[in-house]
Amino acid sequence: MPPAAISLPPLSVLLQHLAGILPLSALIEFIDIATKVHLFELNGSVALWNWPVTPPGARLLLSGEDTSDACCLDRIQRSIVLHCIDGRYGDWYPSSTPTTTRLCVSAQKNVIVVPNASPNMADVMGRKQRLEVVRVRQQAPELASKSHLPLYRAVVSRLPAHSIKYTFVSAVGWLCLVGLVIISLLAQLYVAAAYLLLMPLTGKLVQFSHGGKARRLLDERASEFQRLVVATSSLNGSEWWAFYGGSFTLNSFLNKPLHRTSNPPNPKLLRRLLRVMIAAQWALIVTSCAQQNWGAFVISFWIAICACVSTYVYPPESSVQDWLQDSCNLSLEKIQAEFSSRRSMLTAMVYLNPDSKEQRTEWIDPILAPSADRKDWESALFAVMATGTSLALLDDLGHYGGYRIYR
Fold first, then answer.
1. What is the per-residue pLDDT across 106-136, written as a single tens digit (0 to 9) for each?
2. Number of other residues whose CB lies within 10 A of the CB of residue 357
3. Using CA atoms, how far apart are residues 40 and 212, in angstroms rounded to an integer?
4. How, if at all, do strands 111-113 and 330-339 pair?
5. Could you give the dihedral angle defined by the CA atoms of residues 175, 177, 183 and 186, in that order, rounded to the nearest 10 degrees?
6. What are the C-alpha distances in Å from 389 to residues 134, 163, 377, 382, 395?
7. Whether residue 101 has pLDDT greater than 90
8. Contact at 8 Å (CB) between 40 and 46?
């Protein structure tokens, strides 16, 4: 065999032992592979070079689950239910996108906190309730503002809807991958070069089988009617969301599955090919451990790069934000407040609900059953709604007649 174009120094005994262990880190789940697959199905925002597959990831990718109606963690068997209550008709239904909704809300870092100056907040016996009002707004697509440029419109319409940050991270990753492959070949580290080349091949198969194109809302029409939808993980919990926005948008966002623009041509064949790719990855990892040379460090370095990119450089929060802005043309704004009791929080919900002008409160029946005391509370609330009120007064109205409800 001719000498290598790049001569690397020999490894010490300690480094040889490390080289026999480090590549096995590819079999350990350093990142949340389920969230990674979910985001890929949602937005296609996982670069093709970022697909080292762990055993749990292999079970997920090869499961054969139907991905047409719901992304990975939105499927019934993999999601935690998110109860939704329509603020007009009172429909009580589980959200079709529970995990996606939670990711979208948690990704909003700019939270407006409204202080509650009510003396009821000092009651240590009270059961505090936190309400986050999420205002969902439709934004005009950036392409519309430049529709007078036919060439621009023709080019952009054929490009994936990815942010500048993702494009930059993806491009840097490709440069690093090509550079490492060249160095590995010149140094005759063929096992490492083969492992690196398997990354984009594996990613391409995942793209064919699980999407790769951003999903969209089923109904993207703008609505002149504003709606309030209450959401919570448990009707007996203490954390609540109140989504406020256009009726079409909220219904598509919470109650309808996200639209997948393409389906795999031959799912069974793709799963077989993907199984071969994953098995080849693991075989090369074991081989590099047996060789105990610099190739093991190259493989370990690439695994670490992929984990850092998915966790810190381009985390799930960035991916969800880009999906909202680039694919759905939506912006979310969170306003957070805390109340001293369940009744006080319901007071704020009724006050914020645009359909309360018709004095319709049947929608809160799943949370608070009808009663004579509730009628007195509603009468007091509707009496002050026309004049406006403060958060502290809303909290006091929640204790109308000296009655509190702790559920």
1. 998 878 888 888 888 888 777 889 999 999 9
2. 10
3. 6
4. parallel
5. -110
6. 20, 42, 15, 11, 10
7. yes
8. yes
In this structure, the strands spanning 92-94 and 83-86 are antiparallel
d(CA 303, CA 50) in angstroms, rounded, equals 9
Burial category of 6 from C-beta neighbours within 10 Å (exposed 0-12, middle 13-18, buried 19 and up): middle
Q: Name residue, tokens 């389906």.
A: 263
CA 79, chain centre distance (Å): 12
Residue 389 has pLDDT above 80, yes or no: no
Identity (one letter) of the amino acid at 189?
A: L
Phi, psi of 343 (to 5 degrees): -65, -40
Does the pTM surpass 0.90? The reply is no
Local structure of 200: helix, strand or coil:
helix
Q: Is 280 exposed, middle or buried (0-12, 13-18, 19+ CB in 10 A)?
A: middle
Q: What does the DSSP assignment read for 233-263?
A: S-TTSSEEEEEEEEHHHHIIIIISPPBPS--
Q: Which two tokens stand for residue 291?
A: 């060789």
- 368 Cβ neighbours under 8 A, 6+ residues apart: 342, 343, 346, 374, 405, 407
One-letter amino acid identity for 407? R
Spatial contact of 331 and 139, defined as CB atoms under 8 Å apart: yes
Which phi and psi angles does 133 have, rounded to 5°? -90, 120
How many Cβ atoms sit within 10 Å of the Cβ of residue 406? 10
Place of tokens 């096995």: 24
Q: Where are the domains of the chain?
A: 13-340, 341-407
d(CA 308, CA 173) in angstroms, rounded, equals 12
Neighbours of 365 (CB within 10 A): 13
